[in-house]
Amino acid sequence: MAAIAKVSLSQIVGLVEAIDEVGGQADVATISQEVEMELDRLGPIVDAAEFLGLLRVVDGDLSINDLSRKVLRANVKERKAIFRDILENMPVFRHVTTLVRSAGRPLGKRDVIGALAGAVGSHHSEAFFNALVYWGRYVELVRYDSEAEQLSLRTPSK
Amino acid sequence: MTDAPPLLEVRGISKSYVDGAKEFKVLDGIDFAVRDRDFVCVVGSSGCGKSTLLRIIVGLEPPTAGTVRFEGQPIRADNPQVAMVFQSFALFPWLTVEQNVELGLEARGRPPGERRERARRSIEEVGLTGFENAYPRELSGGMKQRVGIARALAMEPLLLCMDEPFYALDGLTAQSLRDEILQLWSDPEHPPRAVLMVTHNIEEAVYLADRVIVLSDRPGRILAERRIDLPRPRNRKEPEFYGWVDELYSLIV
């Protein structure tokens, strides 16, 4: 999970597009050649795409699905909305947004990581926090003040 | 067709540098035009003078000979209708995303209210809403270049010039950003009207451009100009696509 949290949504879209261009299905080695990226760098991107439900991975074979095709057809704004939907509905992130909503105020990084530890274990909690901040900020699900280390919810711009 | 002058007209541009007693010619007799709705890529190997050409076009460097006209008028470095995106992103680490985006407008003396409004709009166009108060260190490479693009868009330029804008990014991030640039350019409601981009990457040029200008090795001369008439979105794996890539390669090598 620590490596997944460093993957950007742009990289995931780029990966899905690369697989689409070769017919929607390919093995990891082929894609690694296609996108000129070593497996150690590609691995976390594949994992992140699978984690978000945009990729099916079976025995090293990658295939895209209806959701990833929808992402590819969408423009920047629509993509954001799709990713926002995905993140909002993942139980681990929902756990945090529910918590912040019920607190009715921004929560500190430590509190959120503490709450995440209850859900995913203390070993992974910081990585999930980083992923939530990294992706959640882009899709306008959360705000994060890196100086004060405070997380809050936001309503997306129209 | 109208008789309006092209957005950009480059005529007989040459550039030489003097080093001691020796003169190095980097560009030689470059002629081309960029018209409304064009997406033009200039390709060439490294050191062929293509970045220098772009710097001359936006008025950052004077040519040794030749003229650059924008809508029929000689180009000026402070022409707000031409904006530039740099390979290195050119962000200031101590400024937030919003402050970095506003910088170009501030330099042109626009009032604070207008700066904020235009910055907000262009930040939204590149999908950076939510990062207004973030610092560059909090952003990935792709996000940093989106800030660079937002800063250029905030000028509401007619012509967007880009110097190897995806060079510093990994292949997957670069491809997402290419698609986003195509979306921005193809929206007739918003700036820019035309894009002029310099790249060493022939595949990238064939993916993006409707016209590709091929420069020779130093001194850079125009070897060929090709119209890429493939429909969009283009698939980099299709034979027609590869036919174009091969043809352009054979011109350079």
From TrEMBL, chain A:
Domain of life: Archaea
InterPro entries listed in its UniProt record: AAA-associated_dom_C
Keyword presence, ATP-binding: yes
Record protein name field: Sulfonate/nitrate transport system ATP-binding protein
Single GO MF annotation: ATP binding
Keywords, ordered alphabetically: ATP-binding, Nucleotide-binding
UniProtKB/TrEMBL annotation, chain B:
Keywords: ATP-binding, Nucleotide-binding, Transport
Keyword presence, ATP-binding: yes
SUPFAM superfamilies for the chain: P-loop containing nucleoside triphosphate hydrolases
All residue ranges annotated as the ABC transporter domain in the record: 8-242
Classification via Pfam families: ABC_tran
Keyword ATP-binding: yes
PROSITE patterns the UniProt entry points to: ABC_TRANSPORTER_1 (PS00211), ABC_TRANSPORTER_2 (PS50893)
GO molecular function: ATP binding; ATP hydrolysis activity
Name of the protein this chain belongs to: ABC transporter, NitT/TauT family transport system ATP-binding protein
